Amino acid sequence: AQGPELFQVLLFTALVERALADREKRTQGRSAAVWALFAALCLAKISYLALAPVLIGFEWRRRGAKAAALWSAPGLLSTALLLAALHAYKFGSPLLTGYHAWRPELHAFTWAWGQSLYGLLLSAQWSLPRHFPLLLLALPALRTLEEPFAPAFAAASLAMTWAAIGGFVLWRGEFCYGPRFFLFALPALALPAVEVLDSLREQLRRPRGMAAAALAGAVLAFSFSQQRAIARYPFMAQQMLRVPIQDLLDEPTRRL
Known about the structure:
Helix content: 55-70%
Strand content: under 5%
Low-confidence stretches: none
Largest sheet: none
Shape: flat
Number of strands: 0
Distance between the termini: 20 Å
Order of helices and strands: HHHHHHHHHHHHHH
């Protein structure tokens, strides 16, 4: 599953870059590129439809409701038609998405948004900061950014994705290192870390800079050690262990 996720990271990063360029200088070509990348993401995974309110919301805040409607309508309509055509070809109906082959153990709705939020922030297995520690380095620079659009857009995209799928059993994604459905926005969200690292480079000869660089190095070294440990196991190790013992676990433990 990692290959498609990397592809989607590239598409989302390109979408953020085009959306930022479109904000700075509006042209038909740039707007078309934004919605073409949005459509490509939705064709890759239908859950990316959750990004539509984010795109429209940023435009609404910047130029008002009428401008947002005129800007978004052609892109949304084109995306809907492409999805309908793809689903009709793959599944025999434009209204089927592939999730119609219902598997309650994977697709059931549980209302467990609190559990998924805890998992994404603090759990050992699914925490976003644990899997992508550059997020922690990005925090000190958030207040000083001259152009906060990229991390703000990425954070809003993650929030909408969590709102859309956080109440389902499948919020973890699995079959990947980390919560698969939430990895797409992490590089854009962590962009402020570049400023922090640049600041550290300028202050390396000072005690504060040396301490910060040592802390950053320790975090990254720990992350590398975790990735190395994980890579030593077979790819399907979790599933190989979970299937034989899941009937022995109580329900709260099984949901973890």
